[in-house]
Design a protein that fits this description.
alpha/beta; Anaerobic Ribonucleotide-triphosphate Reductase Large Chain; Enolase-like, domain 1; 8-stranded mixed β-sheet; 3-stranded mixed β-sheet; 28 strands
Length: 758
Amino acid sequence: MHTDRKLQLSENALKVLDRRYLIKDDNGKSIESPVQLFARVANSIAQPDRNYGATDPQVEETATKFFNSMADLEFMPNSPTLMNAGRPLGQLSACFVLPVGDSMDEIFTAIKHAALIHKSGGGTGFAFSRLRPRNAVVASTSGVASGPVSFMKVFNAATEAVKQGGTRRGANMGILRVDHPDILEFISCKDDIREITNFNISVAITDEFMRAVEEKRKYALIDPRTNDVFRCEGEPQYLDASMVFEKIVDHAWKTGEPGIIFVDRMNASNPTRKFELIEATNPCGEQPLPPYDSCNLASINLGKVVLDPLPATYSPSEPDKGINWTRLHELVRLGVHFLDNVIDENKYPIREIEEQTRASRRIGLGVMGWADMLAQLRVPYDSETALALGGRVMEFVNTRGHFHSSELAKSRGKFPRWADSSFAEEGVAMRNATVTTVAPTGTISIIAGCSSGIEPYYAVSFVRNVMDGTRLVDVNPIFERIARDRGFYSPALMEKIANSNSIQSMEEIPEDIRRIFVTAADVPPDRHVRMQAVFQQHCDTSISKTINFPETATRDDVKTSYWLAYKLGCKGVTIYRDGSRTDQVLSTGATPSATGAPAKEEAQIRVIYKPQVEDRPDCLTGITEKIKTGYGNLYVTINIHDDRPFEVFAQIGKSGFSTMADTEAVCRLISLALRSGIDVDDIIEQLLGIGGSSPVYQHGGVVASIPDAIAKVLKRHFGNGKQKESARSSYDVCPDCGGRVQHDSGCVVCPSCGFSKC
């Protein structure tokens, strides 16, 4: 392979690679180039071919094909594979589903397994539906159960304590069946955006529930311990289905959560349904999995299989003629080969996951760059032509993917549980239980320089605020090329576009170009749903996509989209209404605020962040500690609210007015920070070790100053334990760079630095 070649990587791609993917030395400096990264991954993933009789030259040939597809930005595996292939950690899977049983031993075993997975760079999905409801009797202790939501908070805290291998943040999906007795508490558990911040949540909707909603009747709540109708004081318990459905809609309209998954539909299409039940998905909703299974993902960049130049006879009414179907076929074959090798090369975090993954050998080959393909073919995203082409493209990927998995089964063997699968009934040899998935492609689409998943463009141009305060205008490269070729490009126009979430009213842009470059804000919700549905028709597992709504959307609009998704065969729905979170970063100058106030058309893009300062209750309890300082004994009082430090007072004796004033000022600022949700460890880090003119020794250490003394007291009682996150961690502001994030592909991603919630 030609490792001396130059790559066509954008500035953003280089930054993301350097920050998250390249190997670094002990000082945090990258010691690997992007070319070397792709070579490392290609060589590592080619090695399993030896298990099936490949010679050294054949392995080298396979590695070269893998390398070229990544270097040409035509194909990209999921982030853990890019990060860990060929390295000691070696964990290559994106996400996992873990079972949560109804005992303390099972619950904390799941927490331990989740911590190991997060440390290795993966995300986790959990179904909490097996847990007994709140206040149910626990026979072994004569106490009462705290319920699924309570334990979700324990899982959330454990996730907060583990940073994913230093490269990715912990991501979880929490799922509860709609017929669980605690479903109403679950639906509202994220109303406070500072709660359960490391989870996406979704309600597992059953067919029975949807029928009950349609028929306007009640449905039974099910006792997870007996699978019979849940009884309270001997009486069977029912809920009004329409009321529950309205609550789901209302909360999704307000905050974007919960999402919904159609769990019976997921199981009906599961080829291994005879012996295992799907009860949860990975954190972005697109990969339904049985317990202990994993998703091993990669995506083909559809923008790279458009013929360039287009044939002279090409017409947007016949977009098929603009696609290099031969190259797409080659990439599908390569992708199936690559992902099957990933299963063999992977170093699994726990034994149960390795056994389950190797038994079913599920892979998820998907697509990204769909909006790029449409723009190059001059097909509007929200057109009937685009819907038809989407079905054609995904059908091609799915059928060719199944063909090549079947071919691998002939040379490598069927997946071990094949005999009990639906494929055995059909007489079809398969190497992999599933082949296709449309996953979120947040950071890998930044690396590939393409649009995310099957989403429309989020914006044609946006302003990126870099660390030194410089404002850079990033323009869609396809749009920029057309603008220059057609003669309407200007820096001023690009700046204007960056201050709007749509170009449809800009008459200086030719009408035919405006029609092609529709953005998420321009696409009606029903078209979002229909696009998801046409891809779902030809996908083994599910689709990661966000149904974007304008700020003016009503609850009925959300409800209509849910019903449409159900009727059209989607397996799940994630919605996001623009401006529905109080601390949303304005994606463009025209995005309205959550209060409903219209934004100025030419407003400069900026981060909107105003901490929510909690009111002080009339009565609080706390602790007071005496600590010796160079200015005398300091009495530090820390009052507590909701099991966390809430305010700090300090009194220093006989030290002069100036010292007392300084002490009060420090305490006031600490209290303000705590009441605004700032993590106490961050406060401790800022104050600890501040020097003063009169240090003293106490308990074997130095107390350098009054701020240092206060920090030491805080650390003794509350340090190294994360508190509730501030509103800034709501994932509307990027927690890494402070830039704006995008809600797409069922996930949240920052286009500036590559942060991804998933």
